[in-house]
Amino acid sequence: QLQLVESGGGLVQPGGSLRLSCAASGMTLDYLTIGWFRQAPGKEREGVSCISSRGLGTNYADSVKGRFTVSRDNAKNTVYLQMNSLRPEDTAVYYCAAYAFRLGPCKILLREYDYWGQGTQVTVSS
Questions:
Q1: What letters, b where the CB count within 10 A reaches 16 and e where it falls short, cover 33-59?
Q2: What pLDDT band is residue 48 in, cutting at 50, 70 and 90?
């Protein structure tokens, strides 16, 4: 059974940076497309970024383009979300999610993902 565990969240000042990690166990990362989502209080969960299986492509929400970068380290079975120039509106619980055995461009749509982590809190505040 695939399990996903996020880490790296915390409190950061506006303009600062954080790197989130999503560690996968139970399945090799080669077969997994990983997405990052976030949910702010009182709002629906929204897509942030994704990276296709085998790292063949990435996708970003307009709100984070140029500030966030998703990458993967297959040797560590881990995907990262580097978040720079953070803003108060980036405050949310961040989740990683996965689907397996599908090729092609990744999609940051909730309904595409079968496995979810427990989330990590990111707070951007002075």
A1: bbbbbbeeeeeebebbbbbbbebeebb
A2: very high
